[in-house]
Amino acid sequence: IGPQVSKAFASGRWPARPPVSCNSASGRLGQATAMVPAGATSVTICATKAHRTVTSGYQTLVRALDRLRTGPSDGSCSMLPGSSSGPDYELLFSYPEGPAAAVFVNANCHPAIDNGNLQSASASSVVPIIQQLLKAK
């Protein structure tokens, strides 16, 4: 981050941010109080077999994530008895400025949702919305 800060200080502006890509998780100020901090302009949904960036219609997903009962993240994932892996998603919410907010969803894991600061036990209200967004044209 040092080179970015130096460049920003010298120019008086933050340098252009690289495009969001799967497996490049980052964190964002505000994720300790909301699963998805306010102001997201798009979401990139990373799944095992596909990924898609959605620039409209994703607000239902933001609201569903922010309505979840959450507690502090302990960074753990315990596979549920009798389950196999998946569905497994990495959600990267982009903003006009600054880093993306990453949210990880694994319906067969406990807790099922984690943003690095907060976690939630169940993904049952969120996975259908993610699947719908992946299928939308």
Question: What are the defining features of this structure?
Answer:
single chain; 137 residues; alpha+beta; seven-stranded antiparallel sheet; two-stranded antiparallel ribbon; 3 helices; 9 strands
Characterization of this structure:
By secondary structure, the protein is α+β, with helices and mostly antiparallel strands. It has helices spanning 2-11, 59-67, 127-135; strands at residues 42-47, 51-54, 71-72, 78-79, 88-94, 101-106, 109-110, 113-114, 118-120. Strands 2-1-5-6-8-9-3 form a 7-stranded antiparallel sheet, with helices on one face. It has a two-stranded antiparallel ribbon with strand order 4-7. The longest helix has 10 residues, at 2-11.
Average of per-residue pLDDT values: 86
What portion of the residues fall into strands of 2 or more residues?
15-25%
The count of strands amounts to: 9
What distance lies between the first and last C-alpha atoms, to the nearest angstrom?
Answer: 37 Å
Series of H and E elements: HEEHEEEEEEEH
Roughly how much helix do the residues carry, as a percent range? 10-25%
Gyration radius (Cα, Å) is 16 Å
Structural class: alpha+beta
Residue stretches low in confidence (pLDDT < 50, at least 5 long) are none
Summarize the structure.
The chain has 137 residues and is α+β, with helices and mostly antiparallel strands.
Spell out the blueprint of helices and strands.
Blueprint: H1 2-11, E1 42-47, E2 51-54, H2 59-67, E3 71-72, E4 78-79, E5 88-94, E6 101-106, E7 109-110, E8 113-114, E9 118-120, H3 127-135
Antiparallel strand pairs: 1-2, 1-5, 3-9, 4-7, 5-6, 6-8, 8-9
